[in-house]
Amino acid sequence: xxxxxxxxxxxxxxxxxxxxxxxxxxxxxxxxxxxxxxxxxxxxxxxxxxxxxxxxxxxxxxxxxxxxxxxxxxxxxxxxxxxxxxxxxxxxxxxxxxxxxxxxxxxxxxxxxxxxxxxxxxxxxxxxxxxxxxxxxxxxxxxxxxxxxxx
Length: 151
Hints:
This protein is mainly alpha-helical. Helices cover 61% and strands 0% of the residues. The chain contains 7 helices and no strands. The longest helix has 22 residues. The radius of gyration is 15 Å and the shape is globular.
């Protein structure tokens, strides 16, 4: 029987993250005529970021159970901190984007929120996804994974 750690690989999570990133960009570009067009776009980008961090952490030996723990789970801030402790580096804009989504977990983005709040722009989230794709993609390539490059 295949265990969960064998089924949920760093490379698989990376490809899933990339799928959410590219889907967010496509939806953002489509500009659907709806009342809250940025809400699903931001959700997809933040979910992509969560998956990129989980990919990097799996690459560095964390188990699926550890990734699902109450300490990490869907908490992007904690996943980012843990990834940094394993050597993942962020540029200044990535840090600004992460600061805006600190305390937010993926579940917060699924429902309407009223009152004042700040979220990163889709454009900034897209650049952070690209940054993570580049750096984590290089880490995967260094370990022999066949990561495809986008133009």
